[in-house]
């Protein structure tokens, strides 16, 4: 039983980390009024590009940076459409997801083979702590990239805290962009920056999924993880501190797909696959009615007189 619980927690953390990476940036973007449904596209292009570049160059570091850059490119396109051109944020996000799915599938057929294996990140065990029963193998025996990204997430949370000037400016833009503009806050600049931030973070999440987990690329390998990252923000009621908890819960829901059959729980495969998304719907239904999001979320900013 202890062995099974350990395996469940290990899988939950592994599957929850990509969601946490993307949702930690997405919550900042939504606080500034921009909803990025294209997180899935950013992650998927990050997966494909990181594997392609890592397999070509033999460098996992170069592959990771390439994945982050690919996510940044998708983020720049989302920023152009939603902030500059003021297109519908939900429609453009879904369109980019569809484009990324088709593009990476075609690219894999063209540039990768089924036996393409990219170099990946080895697991690094923290002495003593990794030997702690159940928790140790899951939290203190992670791929090297996780130990690099963890402090970056902490810095992101601190920099965008409501106790900082930038954090207050982000919230002001997300609540009332017009009044924020009157106060001298560069509304469009902030919104561009936060969307680009989501692009980089989601690209890194895709790189982590590909290079730290499976070391290869498969069609639609994100399989809706990007959407779960967006839902995690809503379920966490736009509170950065709760995002990590929700991301881990979604990781557990995904891990149960593999753990329940081992425990002898006889459930249809289709139900196990859709379990994370059923949980996501339940989370949104339970939390969204209790907490209003930023007032200007999804509302394009138009300067009066322009």
Distance between the termini: 65 Å
CATH superfamily label: ABC transporter involved in vitamin B12 uptake, BtuC
Largest sheet: 2 strands, antiparallel
CATH fold category name: ABC transporter involved in vitamin B12 uptake, BtuC
Q: How many E-type strands?
A: 2
Mean pLDDT: 88
| Oligomeric organization of the protein chains | single chain
Numbering strands along the chain, what is their spatial order in the largest sheet? Answer: 1-2
User: What percent of residues are in strands?
Assistant: under 5%
What is the CATH C-level name?
Mainly Alpha
Helical/strand content category: mainly alpha
User: Helix amount, in percent?
Assistant: over 70%
Task: Tell me the overall shape.
Answer: globular
Low-confidence parts lasting 5 or more residues at pLDDT below 50? none
Our count of domains comes out at 1
- What Rg, in angstroms, do the CA atoms define? 19 Å
Q: Which architecture does the CATH hierarchy give at level 2?
A: Orthogonal Bundle
Order of helices and strands: HHHHEHEHHHHHHH
Please outline what is shown here.
This is Simple sugar transport system permease protein. The protein is mostly helical and 306 residues long.
